[in-house]
């Protein structure tokens, strides 16, 4: 995905139960893949990051069995409710992905280099916002995934914990992060305590993901 420079989007959440969103002992979870791909694109390829989307990938339209609707979507900030305006906003990264959490606002001040989110909270529900990014001087070491016999398998390589690390964590319905300029990018993931009404994996709660920001200064001729 990192090397497919024509691509602009990545499914950070796919509601199909067989996607294995969290990964396993040999496969990275989807959020981890997103951070790895974006780190490589910005640091090594001088290219803008992939924007994160949430989708249903639904195939069953009656009841909640299997790959059913209503698990994931995007919320787009567009000037008009037209295909052209929506597509323009998607390609510009003016949207966030959600599996249930609604954000009142997402604001990145490019002059002040600050990223803020405001959550449309629900009564009795708690929220944690994590600001996630990769430092400019991150550890680039990586290792192939091997099976029990030592043979390399087809899977995302293991990367340093510097890649997609948690830079700050804020509880409540509003949060702000001040970028230092030493981050390749910063994004947020908001996690609630509300159980997903139609979960695609065990113990799933509702979440929202915002787009990477602050990367422009590290990518020449990015637009």
Would you give an account of this structure?
Strand 1, helix 1 and strand 2 form a beta-alpha-beta unit. By secondary structure, this protein is mainly beta. 12% of the residues lie in helices and 34% in strands. The strands form four sheets. The protein has a six-stranded antiparallel β-sheet with strand order 3-4-13-12-7-10. It has a three-stranded antiparallel β-sheet with strand order 5-6-11, with no helix packed on it. Strands 1-2 form a two-stranded parallel ribbon. It has one domain (9-218). The protein has helices at residues 30-45, 83-92; strands spanning 9-14, 51-55, 73-76, 95-98, 103-109, 114-119, 127-135, 142-143, 158-159, 165-171, 174-178, 183-195, 205-209.
Tally of separate domains = 1
Largest sheet strand order: 3-4-13-12-7-10
Distance between the termini: 19 Å
Rounded to an integer in angstroms, the radius of gyration calculated over CA atoms is 18 Å
The helix tally amounts to 2
The helix fraction, in percent, is 10-25%
Which class do the helix and strand fractions yield? mainly beta
Poorly predicted ranges: none
Oligomerization: single chain
**Mean pLDDT value:** 95
Determine the strand fraction and express it as a percent band.
25-35%
Number-wise, the strands total 13
Give the helices and strands as they follow along the chain: EHEEHEEEEEEEEEE
Largest sheet: 6 strands, antiparallel
């Amino acid at each position: 995905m990192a090397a497919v420079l024509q691509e602009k989007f990545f499914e950070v959440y796919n509601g199909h139960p067989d996607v294995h969103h969290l990964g396993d002992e040999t496969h990275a979870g989807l959020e981890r893949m997103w951070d790895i791909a974006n780190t490589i694109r910005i640091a090594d390829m001088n290219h803008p990051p992939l924007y994160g989307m949430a989708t249903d990938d639904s195939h069953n339209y009656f009841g909640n069995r299997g790959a059913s609707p209503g698990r994931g979507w995007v919320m787009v900030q567009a000037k008009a409710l037209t295909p052209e305006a929506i597509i323009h906003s998607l390609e510009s990264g003016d949207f966030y992905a959600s599996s249930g959490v609604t954000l009142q606002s997402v604001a990145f001040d490019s002059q002040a280099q600050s990223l803020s989110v405001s959550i449309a909270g629900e009564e009795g529900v708690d929220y944690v916002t994590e600001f996630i990014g990769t430092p400019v001087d991150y550890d680039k070491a990586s290792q192939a995934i091997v099976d029990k016999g030592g043979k390399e398998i087809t899977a995302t390589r293991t990367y340093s914990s510097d890649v997609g690390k948690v830079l700050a964590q804020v509880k409540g319905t509003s949060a702000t992060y001040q970028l230092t300029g030493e981050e390749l990018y910063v994004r947020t993931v908001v996690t609630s305590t509300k159980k997903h009404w139609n979960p695609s994996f065990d113990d799933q709660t509702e979440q929202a993901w915002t787009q990477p920001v602050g990367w422009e200064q590290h990518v020449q001729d990015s637009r």
